[in-house]
C-alpha cells in the first residue's frame, strides 16, 4: 500500500513542511491534528492535564502561540498554555506526526501515513549479547 512506502512518507513530510512554512510566513492562524506519541512538552505538563489527552491532539496556533511558532530539525515548535491555569510549555511536534493541517475548518493538508507505526531500525543481533559490547564501537 502506497501510504506505507517510505518515499511516499517523505513526500508528505516535505509537503507539510512547505505548507507550514507558508502559513508561518503569512502569520495565518491554523490548527494541526497530530499523533501524540513523539510530541515533547518542555516543561512537562502536569498529569491532571495530560490524563485528558487521547492518541491524537489538536493544537490551534493563533495570537502568541502563532507568533512563537517556528520550524527546526523536522519539528514544529511553539509555546502554548494548557488547562484552566494556562500552564505554559514549549511544544515540539515532529512534522511526520502531523495528520492534518486546517484553517478555519478547511483542510489544507492530510497525511494518513502519520497514523501508521514508524519503521523501527533493525536490531543488531550481535549487540543483544552483553559480552559482545567490547567488540562494538562506542556511540557516545
Break the fold down into its secondary structure elements and pairings:
Layout: H1 6-26, E1 30-35, E2 40-42, H2 47-50, E3 56-61, H3 63-68, E4 70-72, E5 75-82, E6 87-94, E7 98-103, E8 106-110, H4 125-128
Antiparallel strand pairs: 1-3, 1-7, 2-6, 4-5, 5-6, 7-8
Can you offer a commentary on this structure?
This protein has about 140 residues and is α+β, with helices and mostly antiparallel strands. The chain has one domain: Roll (SH3 type barrels), CATH 2.30.30. It is built from 4 helices and 8 strands, in the order αββαβαβββββα. Strands 3-1-7-8 form a 4-stranded antiparallel β-sheet. A hairpin with a 2-residue loop joins strand 7 and strand 8 (about 105-110). The longest helix has 21 residues, at about 5-25. It is globular, with a radius of gyration of 18 Å. The relative contact order is 0.20. The mean pLDDT is about 90.
Whole-number tally of structural domains = 1
From the N-terminal CA to the C-terminal CA, the straight-line distance is 38 Å
Number of helices: 4
Order of helices and strands: HEEHEHEEEEEH
CATH class: Mainly Beta
Radius of gyration using CA atoms only: 18 Å
What's the total number of strands? 8
- The structural class is alpha+beta
Contiguous uncertain segments of 5+ residues = none
CATH topology: SH3 type barrels
The CATH homologous superfamily is named SspB-like
As laid out across the biggest beta sheet, the strand order is 3-1-7-8
Helix content: 25-40%
Strand content: 25-35%
CATH architecture group name: Roll
